Records
---
Amino acid sequence: MSARTDASRWNAVAARDRDHDGEFVYAVRTTGVYCRPSCASRRALRANVRFFEDGSAAEAAGFRACKRCEPRSTESATTRVIAKARAYLDAHIDAQPALATLAKAVGMSASHLQRTFKREMGVSPRQYVAALRADRLKAHLRAGATVSRATFDAGYGASSRAYHAATEQLGMTPGAYRRGGKGVHIRYMTAPSALGRLLVAATDRGVCAVTLGDDDVTLENALNSEYPQSTRRRVRGTRGDDDLRAWVAAVRAYLEGVEREIAVPLDVAGTPFQERVWQALQRIPFGETRSYTQVAESIAAPTAVRAVASACARNRVSLVIPCHRVVRGTGALGGYRWGLARKERLLAREHGIAARRVDASEGPATRASR
Ligand SMILES: [Zn+2]
């Protein structure tokens, strides 16, 4: 709820504004009770009020729910409205419903719905529809259509930029990630690769971990500690889970030098800052490197070099988000979560392949994107 200040929350409480119910709760030190913003009970003194993201947070701090406004019931009402909104959008993916239409359909004001949806889902309703269309695109891709044809069919202009932009929109919500993947079902596979053992894990929405290591047990333990509350299933054998198999194949094609890009949907939630860094990393071309400072400058946060480095270190999908392409300004390799030797080999190989392509006079023409 980062952007909302306590001052604006207090204004909502002072106005008993129903529109903010479900967005936060306020607790009163003197009574030990917490309420939704619109509670009709006597107004507390500002000095005695603390704000919390939700009832759980207030209860963790020792407050109990108000019997009069039942702040817990707002939370479940919110969940119902969001479920209704999602169902509506799922059913109207081609119509691109206006926010006002959607709001009417679920019985909530447009501005309240926009805020609530964004808070619960991590994306706006509009971005949600874009991601649904991206899902359809992925289905086309799995069915064997070429990328340009599939982007066209899915309603985008024929541009892989649109594909990447859309697939970056939606995934595990930040909330689900914060809760250790609670309620999230993860499948994973391991495979041999030129850089050791490879583990690829995915939710129903996309790849949530790509890790490299010396043995499967270490990789599995790392996955477990990243998503401790999720349910996890290891995929073995040669049948079923076609989507996961396709994503593993895409990562291996990159590691074997067959492909320069790994075009898989991602499901990685982070802080807004981390996500900006991760998106910036995906814009570093194959065969090139950037310094941490350059990445910080590219996201208009030139002084946040340390935060950039730590976002790189928090990357959960190696290779797909190419954090190996970030090095120290001095030319030193910097860190790498999956081992410096691997980073060194990845960069050497990418540079080698990129250099060969430039030398070859009849290399594939790279058309400027429109
Ligand atoms: Zn109350």
---
Amino acid sequence: MQRATITVAAGRPDPTPDAPLNVPVEFASALVAGGDVGYTRHDAGNSRAFEQVLGALEGGHAVLFASGMAAITAVLDVLAPASVARPPVFYSGTRAVLDARSHIRQVVCEPDAWIDADADLRWIESPTNPDLRVIDITAASSRDTPTVVDSTFATPIAQRPLALGAEVVVHSVSKYLSGHSDLILGAAVCRDPELAARLRDHRELTGAIAGPMEAWLALRGMRTLDVRFRRAADNARVLAERLSGHAGVQKVIWPGLANHPDHAVATRQMDVIGPMLSAIPTGGESAAQAISESTRLWTHATSLGGVESTLERRRRHRFESPLVDPGLLRLSVGIEDVEDLWADLRQALEAAGSSR
Ligand SMILES: Cc1ncc(COP(=O)(O)O)c(C=O)c1O
């Protein structure tokens, strides 16, 4: 089945007269004895339904966690690497987790240096947050070393890292997969069922299972992933092109643009170039801050991947990498009408220009 069909058709109960079409939300802790589960910290029906859909989309065995960070720490704990190859700039939370594990040697890899990386785990994020570099997953996974790909910005609609050679895919389900900025969840998807079982054990013992309401909402959001992601990506293309021609913008970073350093890899590897877009205004940091505070339709907010468009200057966070330009605005393009999005961005760019 095609991915658009899987998002709709997988993870449903067998059709039974007068029964619901979807797995209903199941509020429970203790379960009646005699079954395989017994207690919902071990496993839960709403998590399982979501895992069936994500596992089918990624082509592996999915484990749902209470957050993206819970999934990431579980993968690092279970694989227990002594050294990790990672991009120069990637999600600040993952970098903080690696930094806190001082016994792990970090090897910083530029996009073209992954093949020869000397480390016992490769931690790829593609596209990277927030500078949108695209890493060649096939080339990076060509050695015996296990490769993990944080595919949050791509979703399985744009790329399927397990099919490209990775062992594990991780997601912040809080973003596109759920899609409505209303929950925190994460997931890991493994090629090896044995590794997925070890992650389940880790989840059980660290208490990182998803609540039933979040799991149910995430699956409800996932049903529309394909249409949401594609529509937002179409909007991003239009905005990237228009921003590129605007005098108030010095740099637009979107892998679908021919001048992006990884454009060739992105078009080869990704079925859709996603909706995340970064831009640096001509006026730098102060203009970026002014723009993020003067939009009316775009919300000034962190996070990403919701139906609503949001933007922020990433370096406003003290934990963001100093390698990120202080004027970089990260835009999470939503599914609104693109003309309304452009009109609002243009008025904010003009307001920032006149305040300089
Ligand atoms: C690329 C990426 N990975 C992981 C995470 C962490 O996910 P969560 O916030 O769901 O714990 C984030 C959050 O912003 C992210 O952007």
---
Amino acid sequence: MSDLLPALDKYLLKITPPRPKTLEEMERYAKKHDFPYIGPVAGRLLYQQALLHATNNSKAKTKIFELGSGYGYSAYWFSIALGAKAEIHLTDNDESNLELARKYFKQGRLKSKFVYHAGDALESFSKTRGKFDIVLSDIHKKDYPTVVKAVVPRLNKGGLLISDNLIWSGKVFGKNRDSATASIRKYTKLVYTHPKLFTTIIPIRDGVAISIKL
Ligand SMILES: C[S@@+](CC[C@H](N)C(=O)[O-])C[C@H]1O[C@@H](n2cnc3c(N)ncnc32)[C@H](O)[C@@H]1O
């Protein structure tokens, strides 16, 4: 792997301003438990994209669906961007993560409407009716290719599919042949070539792709 990625990550972290108290507490939790969360550098991107999307759309509520929410760190960033003007669906196959998310959201006095789905994220998505403005893809990488087919028809025009880990610690451009890396390569090809999406990878942290629904 090139030395650029860790050095870039370190620099971006250094210039990132302090976060609200509860978010910083959640960051300490991730470090202590070695939890694979999106982190503050990419968290700011979620905040920025949500704000940009909402500013360009005069809707009463921005509907967000997270595929893989963990204990709510990424949802927290979406929520502080939009406040009461967001409906955020959280999914996780570990119910205790969602319980922790509830605790942190209460502690941070967040104003968004939260809907919690314990169990498989894609199953929860298919059981939830309606279209969404933003979908975050952050589940196990083997399931990534399935996300495109499920999500694209359910995104509003101009909506965003945001996908984490598309650089995968540099393994995608190395010689790795393991199944997770293969899945990410396949997913990347799908979101770059899909006729209904326009995608770019932002090379921060582990690579966050922003796909806009055309
Ligand atoms: C990488 S973590 C990210 C959490 C969150 N997006 C963040 O950045 O703070 C992904 C979470 O999704 C859960 N997960 C992975 N695959 C899943 C699936 N197919 N269905 C439901 N949850 C899943 C994992 O247990 C983990 O808690």
---
Amino acid sequence: MLVALLVTRSPLGEFDLRYESIESHGMGYWFLSVLLMILMHDTYFYWTHCAMHHPKIYRLFHEVHHKSTNPSRWAAFAFHPLEGIVEAGIIFPIIYIIPYHLSVLFVFLVFMTLYNVYGHLGYELYPKRFNKNFIGRWLNTSVSHNTHHSKFNGNYGLYFLFWDRWMRTLREDYDTNFVEVD
Ligand SMILES: [Zn+2]
Ligand SMILES: [Zn+2]
């Protein structure tokens, strides 16, 4: 959050696409821009996360976050500073590609933090068989990320399972693991 505010208020923010009045783009776009930020972040996270699992850089960037094989909510904030830099990097594509109101950035950052904590919660909040329904098939869950921590490979997504399903990195034990925590 602090990083985002520093960037948008610094010379780096000089060319960003921030607009001042919500009315200038309308409330429809306000909601759309939240969704666009979440989709962009999901894509950014998936690919940088996969990259950080490459054996050549895993230890340097990502091993600290994987110290916890059965994470608690605090694991969401446990990572190496280098990984922190990679994660904070999402702010640049967002502010240079998506026209945004500062309140949208705030909502996005709060959502990001809450979903990250949920992903590391250690128990599932979504209902039974959620993994099988039309919407649940595409949403990332705490079960999915918890398995990523215990098994290390597969389930790289953040908010959604689009990329994991498209790239066939969703672990085969996902559905059975989901049933077990019911
Ligand atoms: Zn990982
Ligand atoms: Zn994690």
